[in-house]
């Protein structure tokens, strides 16, 4: 019997432990689609701790199993002498197995570490495919934003055919940047354009709206609260998958035979990310919407989670990333309160902040906008994140502040989210409809039954609004693309 070398014993255990840890971590990463270390960095230790601890425990169990196998099958005589068994393990690891484990550790570690969000951020690997918004005339202009991995010149090439993108537009600053925003103006109405943004070698396309007088039907997609949730095991594995599933169903169901989307734009009623202060959340959100947003305008009503810092409310950043990434018009002096028109519809989108509140200045702006332009449009939609009433605790002053406006200006529809379910309420006296569409991906809430509702359900869903003249036909789809609610509105 050779002499026990304790150093080799400990070395063997260390290497086996490391290898086991990485293997388990990698398997967990693949299964749950997230990185534990990334979560620790981005969300603090609370959420990551439980899972991390479990993984470490599983790693230790694997080491124990290895030692147990040695005890059982190789050296029965060591059954009662754990030190001798460990010595054997150490001996094995100190030889060829040791080299093998070190090499595999380096490979696994390199692969894993380079995929971590914080290193991804450090290495600038945060490309965001182009995404479209409307800031001006929807028939003749479009706003294209994207993020490149490295600072590069801000330009796009575009044209009417995809093999010849004849026109090059450079952003005004001319500086090399990573975040890019370019406005295309003087476009032809109802025309398909092809474009490529600098830094991303793919050709996308979009279609301008027809002139309002030529627009027979306005079609748009509505959903919200697509963020994944704070519960790690139930979160990224489950919730982000639901947003992705909804997007897949939209693509399946809302595409024409010529391959173009059969809708004009997407409206998201907010809580698009878990934590607005975390860049990685935005990267994930942008990856998810890259199947829609490069092709049709994507309009967002800022939600309370866009204000979060880590998992907490009350971050000091004032939805800075919402401002950073998303460009809407600045008609109110704040681009998170904006309005746009499509065909015979006007949409006023406003930000109800972290706690579902409206400021008098916002109400004044909404009233001024309606006073000036309501008469030009058949339909007026108010869009914001927090419902005027719903099943949650009363958290807002919205209802009292906005109902006079709704009556005075004959607002047709209010579109909201925040509660993770679906609610439809029609006030026949005001001829006004209040919608909660918060089933876009976050953990679902219970079905709401508190106040008189025409329909309510707890399920993941998206809505398709089709406005033709003085009538609207609305369908709400579940994840099987089955219609779970449909209704008609008339003005
Ligand atoms: Fe919310």
CATH topology of the largest domain: Purple Acid Phosphatase, chain A, domain 2
| Biggest pleated-sheet summary | 7 strands, mixed
Overall pLDDT metric: 80
Helix content: 25-40%
Q: Strand content of the residues, in percent?
A: 15-25%
Number of distinct helices? 11
Kindly report how far apart the N and C termini lie.
94 Å
Please give a structural write-up.
The protein is of the alpha+beta class and 491 residues long. It has helices at residues 6-32, 36-43, 45-74, 82-94, 96-114, 117-122, 235-253, 279-289, 320-325, 360-373, 398-408; strands spanning 128-133, 142-153, 155-159, 167-170, 176-184, 192-197, 204-207, 217-223, 265-268, 297-300, 338-342, 345-349, 379-383, 413-416, 422-427, 432-437, 455-457, 462-468, 471-477, 483-490. The longest helix has 30 residues, at 45-74. A seven-stranded mixed sheet has the order 11-12-13-14-16-15-17, covered by helices on one side. The chain has a six-stranded mixed sheet with strand order 10-9-8-18-19-20, with no helix packed on it. Strands 4-3-6-7 form a four-stranded antiparallel sheet, with no helix packed on it. The model is unreliable at 33-54, 115-124 and 230-239 (pLDDT under 50). The chain is 33% helix and 24% strand. It is globular, with a radius of gyration of 27 Å. Helix 1 packs across helix 3 and helix 1 (6-32) packs parallel to helix 5 (96-114). The chain folds into two domains: 6-122, no CATH class; 215-490, Metallo-dependent phosphatases (Purple Acid Phosphatase, chain A, domain 2, 4-Layer Sandwich), CATH 3.60.21.10. The protein contains eleven helices and 20 strands. Bound molecules: fe (ii) ion (FE2). Residues 271, 303-305, 385, 418 line the site of fe (ii) ion.
């Amino acid at each position: 019997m050779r002499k026990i070398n304790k150093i080799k014993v400990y070395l063997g255990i260390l290497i086996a432990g490391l290898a086991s840890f990485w293997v388990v971590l990698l398997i967990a990463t693949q299964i749950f689609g997230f990185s534990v270390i990334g979560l620790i960095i981005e969300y603090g230790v609370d959420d990551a701790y439980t899972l991390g601890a479990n993984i470490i425990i599983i790693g230790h169990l694997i080491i124990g199993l290895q030692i147990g196998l040695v005890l059982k099958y190789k050296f029965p005589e060591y059954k009662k002498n754990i030190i001798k068994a460990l010595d054997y393990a150490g001996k094995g690891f100190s030889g060829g197995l040791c080299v093998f484990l070190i090499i595999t550790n380096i490979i696994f570690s390199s692969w894993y570490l380079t995929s971590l969000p914080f290193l991804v951020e450090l290495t600038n690997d945060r490309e965001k495919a182009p995404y479209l918004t409307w800031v001006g005339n929807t028939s003749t202009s479009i706003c294209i934003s994207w993020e490149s991995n490295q600072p590069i010149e801000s330009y796009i090439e575009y044209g009417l055919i995809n093999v010849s993108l004849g026109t090059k537009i450079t952003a005004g600053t001319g500086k090399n940047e990573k975040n890019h925003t370019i406005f295309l103006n003087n476009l032809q109405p109802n025309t398909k354009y092809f474009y490529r943004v600098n830094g991303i070698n793919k050709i996308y396309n979009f279609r301008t709206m027809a002139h309002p007088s030529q627009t027979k039907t306005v079609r748009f997609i509505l959903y919200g609260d697509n963020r994944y949730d704070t519960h790690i095991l139930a979160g990224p594995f489950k919730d982000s998958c639901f947003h992705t599933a909804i997007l897949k169903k939209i693509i399946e169901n809302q595409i024409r035979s010529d391959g173009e989307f059969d809708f004009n734009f997407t409206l998201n009623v907010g809580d698009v990310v878990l934590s607005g202060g975390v860049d990685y959340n935005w990267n994930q959100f942008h990856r998810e919407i890259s199947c829609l947003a490069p092709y049709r305008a994507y309009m967002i009503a800022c939600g309370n989670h866009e204000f979060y810092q880590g998992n907490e409310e009350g971050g000091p950043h004032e939805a800075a990333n919402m401002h950073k990434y998303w460009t809407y018009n600045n008609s109110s002096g704040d681009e998170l309160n904006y309005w746009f028109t499509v065909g015979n519809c006007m949409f006023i989108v406003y930000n109800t902040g972290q706690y579902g509140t409206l400021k008098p200045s916002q109400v004044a702006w909404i009233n001024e906008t309606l006073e000036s332009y309501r008469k030009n449009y058949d339909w007026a939609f108010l869009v914001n994140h927090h419902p005027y009433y719903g099943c949650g605790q009363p958290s807002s002053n919205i209802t009292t502040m906005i109902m006079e406006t709704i009556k005075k200006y004959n607002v047709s529809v209010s579109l909201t989210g925040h509660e993770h379910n679906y609610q439809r309420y029609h006030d026949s006296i005001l001829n006004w409809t209040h919608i909660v569409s918060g089933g876009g991906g976050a953990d679902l809430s219970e079905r709401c039954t508190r106040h008189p509702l025409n329909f309510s359900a707890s399920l993941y869903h998206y809505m398709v609004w089709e406005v033709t003249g003085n009538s609207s036909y609305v369908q709400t789809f579940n994840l099987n693309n089955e219609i779970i609610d449909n209704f008609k509105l008339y003005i």
